[in-house]
Amino acid sequence: MKYRELYEVGKGTLMQANLEEAALDARLLLEFVCHTGRNDLLVHGDREVEIAQEEKYLALIHKRKEHIPLQHLTGVQEFMGLEFFVNENVLVPRQDTEVLVEEIMKNLHDGYRILDMCTGSGCILLSLLHYSNNCIGVGADLSEMALKVAQENAKRLQAENVSFIQSDLFENVEGKYEIIVSNPPYICTDVIETLTEEVRLHEPLMALDGGGDGLFFYRKIIEESPRYLCGGGQLFFEIGYDQKEAVTALMEKAGFKNVTAIKDYAGLDRVVYGCFY
Length: 277
Description:
- This protein is α/β, with parallel strands linked by helices.
- The protein has helices at residues 3-16, 22-34, 40-43, 51-65, 70-74, 95-107, 123-130, 144-156, 197-202, 216-224, 244-253, and strands spanning 76-79, 82-85, 113-117, 136-141, 162-166, 177-182, 229-238, 257-263, 269-276.
- It has 2 domains: 3-66; 87-276, Rossmann fold (3-Layer(aba) Sandwich).
């Protein structure tokens, strides 16, 4: 089958499954299988696709039709201009989280020690280390499988001065840090069932469920983090769009100063951070 014809088959299949990004996903999967670029559809649409590639593509289209995330099929997701390995054991890095990284970078100095709580794929910590000098990073997560993904990403990015530990929040954490960052589970338990199939069925529940009010992990981290922060150290959170007031209040009550909220590219509250003296 010709390249464009195969693309049209894939797109049509995904459209029948009512996938919102059917055309884009069909093209990206075809480029992944054939090792091509976005211009190939226009410039080389008439070239014949090898039988093996055609079969692999149609198999992936079928899986995408079943709402398996595109990133789980390709195994990669771009974040902060870097390519991260992802699978079903970690949340897929999202563009909104880049706002968190960018805000930390405004406050990050060379040589800082950074603790990334609930590190998942390691995308936050590894991005910070990549774009700074001589910083030391520790990523903590309860999930052993998530830590394997983070370690693979550290290897791929040739990250230095980084280590990952299995820890129930601060259970196995040692030392003090200038910056603690966390993108914790923050979705209310009863909201989980309303999420898209891609998220609800294929991303790890333990990385989504923030308890009855979505604030369980914020409370725990805010309560314990002062013991691990240097004087004047900062605690950064990603938050849900409606959690600014609650997380800000929790931080201020715990003694954090200059608590600040930052909006994402859509104008929604996305980051809250403050200092502890």
